[in-house]
Write a structure and sequence with these properties.
The protein has 672 residues and is α+β, with helices and mostly antiparallel strands. Helix content is 65%, strand content 10%. It has helices at 2-29, 32-52, 57-97, 101-138, 141-164, 175-185, 198-218, 235-239, 267-277, 318-339, 350-364, 374-393, 401-408, 410-422, 425-428, 430-444, 453-517, 519-532, 535-557, 570-579, 595-608, 636-646; strands at 188-191, 224-230, 244-252, 281-286, 295-304, 583-587, 614-620, 623-628, 650-653, 659-664. The protein has a five-stranded mixed sheet with strand order 1-2-3-5-4. Strands 6-7-8-10-9 form a five-stranded mixed sheet. β6 (583-587), α21 (595-608) and β7 form a beta-alpha-beta unit.
């Protein structure tokens, strides 16, 4: 019979080990929700075994508590392994992909310069062609003089603006520049918006400039109205993801084209991309049935951005292990007591039982603060130990505080390690000394101590100081290793940024060479012809400049693009979107993010990417959020959920069906 009982015990042990391995594998391979469900089911199954066998309720409760503590730690360990593996994979992709950063930085600068070239040169040269053509048709001396003066002023402005494109200063235009632009064209202008983000004011300037240029081309003599006002359309803030908007409208009442063939065919498309990238909406079209009845351009742009502070779930990342340790500490202290054959004797009655339960909780719960406030957590645990000592001296508790410290002193040591890891050494050195003092007091109060308890306390405190200092030093060494890794990452980022800046500068030099031979040369020729009073040469040089501009833009767009995949960074999302004719809008202050976060943001955007979609990348105080339309391809949302889970983030859907993936910047990326 004893042999049979021994076999049962062995089978039960093997079954328990196999079950814990299953929990671990679930946590490593599955999402938090699914693996946690499996862990809870296993715990309930373990607790059901003694209940079916008819064991006393206190024994069933003890089994359930002990099993839940052990399962919680195994689950949290698996979660930590899952996130560390995901981080290593992301870092490997980052290292492999960052070689493409300089190339794509150069391509992005090429596209920016091309857009600026279109806006600047087309605006100035078109005005010159229109004014010169009108003066030549009328053949009036006064009109000819005005056209020559305009050509001289506008030509010089065009030369200055084209030369500025090759300089490092790329300060965005503000509302003051918009006011000056409207005044120069003498249009009906009103602005009731005073402040907006730099991206919105730059987009406003480009919208107004392009619209006025088109009005000069296609609506000679028309009345042009420009309005910049807060929006009263309740639907638009929803489409813009919760941002406050203002509206830019430019309308004319129709006219005739004075100089056909001046446009490049890319102005409105470029404006739409610019406005959408800032988080707004854009539309343009005839007021009536055709262009001759009037034309309207309307852009809604963010006036201010609301950036909610996102708090990541406490049970994810490193915090999952913190709460698992709380469960383990409570389970081992209370669960072991409930499993005793002498229950309820160890508690000695209702009051001692209640005191023991409360003290066990006070001794365990501060482990939840291990990552956020380890110093306070250790102070709380030591205070609970002192309170236990006082209750022990009063005879209110069982077991004795000396026994508690001997069995559960790992709680204090765990917090001492966290203090060494997260606090400066001058502030953290108190931790091992305080542990030695309080722990020595707890041990010196044990029944086995004879003689002077003060002397015993001094000796025991000195003995405890050695392991406490060793654990604290271990935490300090781990912290220094983290600091070295962070410094190495920062150095790599600086070098990478330097390579990207060099590639951008090289692209700008190539662009400058192209400008000198095309639009810039013709703009200077316009100024020279205006100084000589040759209006016909002014018009011809301006038209030649526009033609050269069109050819240069076509050549830039037809240039060799990178065949490689974009770098797996937040910056690389823009290049990825260009391949899908999609748009990415960036919200919030752009700042360097940890490499793993950059890669996960890129992977998220890649999964959400589709032809023509608009994605939003929000930089939040504690991470980054990538959002876009819900994917229609089966399995994509499941892949996104797994990706967010491995990154320690969350996936949610809005009322409109959009998908938001939030990736935290903090704890999940630090392993202990």
């Amino acid at each position: 019979m004893n042999g049979f009982a021994g076999h049962v015990w062995v089978i039960s042990l093997v079954a328990a080990v196999c079950a814990l391995i299953m929990v671990y594998l679930l946590a490593v391979r599955g999402t938090a929700g699914s693996s946690l469900t499996g862990a809870v089911v296993l715990t309930l199954a373990v607790a059901a075994v003694p209940a079916v066998r008819g064991e006393p309720p206190h024994y069933v409760a003890g089994v359930a508590l002990t099993a839940s503590g052990v399962v919680a730690v195994v689950w949290a360990t698996g979660r930590s392994r899952r996130q560390r593996s995901a981080r290593r994979s992301a870092l490997a992709d980052y290292e492999a992909g960052t070689a493409a950063v300089p190339l794509f930085a150069a391509l992005a600068e090429r596209d920016r310069l091309a857009a600026e070239l279109h806006d600047v040169a087309a605006h100035r040269l078109t005005g010159i062609v229109v004014a010169a053509g009108a003066a030549l048709r009328l053949a009036a001396r006064e009109r000819t003089g005005d056209a020559l003066r305009h050509a001289d002023e506008a030509g010089r402005e065009a030369v200055r603006e084209l030369e500025r494109l090759t300089e490092l200063d790329t300060t965005a235009a503000g509302f003051a520049e918009v006011d000056a632009l409207a005044a120069a064209h003498a249009v009906d202008y009103r602005r009731t918006v005073d402040e907006a983000p730099a991206g919105s004011t730059e987009a406003t300037y480009r919208v107004v400039r392009e619209a006025l240029t088109n009005a000069a081309r296609y609506a000679e003599g028309a009345t042009v109205r420009v309005r910049i006002e807060p929006t009263d359309d309740r639907d638009e803030p929803v489409r813009a993801g919760g941002d406050h908007l203002f509206v830019v409208t430019v309308t004319d009442d129709g006219g005739t084209a004075v100089e056909p063939g001046l446009g490049t065919g890319r102005g409105l498309a470029g404006l739409a991309a610019t406005v959408t990238a800032t988080g707004g909406t854009f539309r343009a079209g005839p007021v009536g049935r055709d262009r001759r009845e009037g034309w309207s351009v309307r852009a809604s742009l963010p006036a201010a951005t609301v950036l909610p502070l996102r708090r990541w779930p406490r049970w994810r990342g490193t915090a999952a292990l913190d709460y698992a340790l709380v469960a383990l500490a409570i389970a081992l202290s209370l669960g072991a007591s409930l499993l005793s054959a002498h229950v309820p004797a160890p508690f000695g009655g209702l009051l001692p039982a209640l005191v023991t339960v409360v003290l066990s909780g006070l001794h365990a719960v501060p482990l939840a603060w291990r990552s956020r406030a380890p110093g306070r957590a250790l102070a709380a645990v030591l205070s609970a130990l002192l309170l236990w000592w006082a209750c022990d001296r009063a005879g209110w508790t069982q077991p004795a505080v000396s026994d508690i410290f001997l069995v559960y002193g790992w709680v204090e040591l765990t917090l001492v390690h966290s203090v060494g890891l997260r606090l400066p050494w001058r502030r953290g050195l108190f931790a091992p000394l305080a542990l030695a003092a309080v722990g020595g007091l707890a041990l010196a109060s044990g029944s086995g101590i004879t003689g002077s308890r003060t002397a015993a306390w001094a000796v025991l405190a000195g003995v405890l100081a050695l392991p406490a200092l060793a654990v604290w030093s271990w935490g300090r060494r781990t912290a220094r290793r983290h600091e070295r890794l962070s410094a190495a990452d920062a150095r790599r980022r600086v070098l990478l940024d330097g390579d990207a800046d060099a590639a951008v500068s090289a692209q700008r030099l190539l662009f400058a060479a192209g400008l000198r031979d095309t639009a810039l040369r013709h703009a200077r020729a316009v100024v020279a012809a205006a100084d000589e009073g040759d209006l016909r040469a002014v018009r011809e040089e301006a038209r030649a400049g526009l033609t050269a501009l069109r050819d240069l833009l076509s050549g830039l767009r037809a240039g060799d693009d990178a065949d490689d995949a974009p770098p797996p960074t937040v910056f690389g999302i823009t290049a990825l979107a260009a391949r899908y004719d999609a748009v990415v809008r960036y919200v919030g202050a752009r700042r360097p993010l940890p490499a793993a976060v950059e890669v996960f943001a890129y992977r998220t955007a890649s999964a959400l990417m589709a032809v023509g979609v608009t994605l939003t990348v929000r930089t939040l105080p504690d991470g980054v959020e990538v959002s876009g339309p819900a994917p229609t391809v089966p399995g994509v949302e499941r892949r996104l959920r797994a990706l967010a889970d491995a990154a320690g983030g969350t996936l949610s859907t809005t009322d409109s069906g959009a998908v938001r993936v939030w990736l935290p910047e903090a704890f999940p990326w630090r392993s202990e």
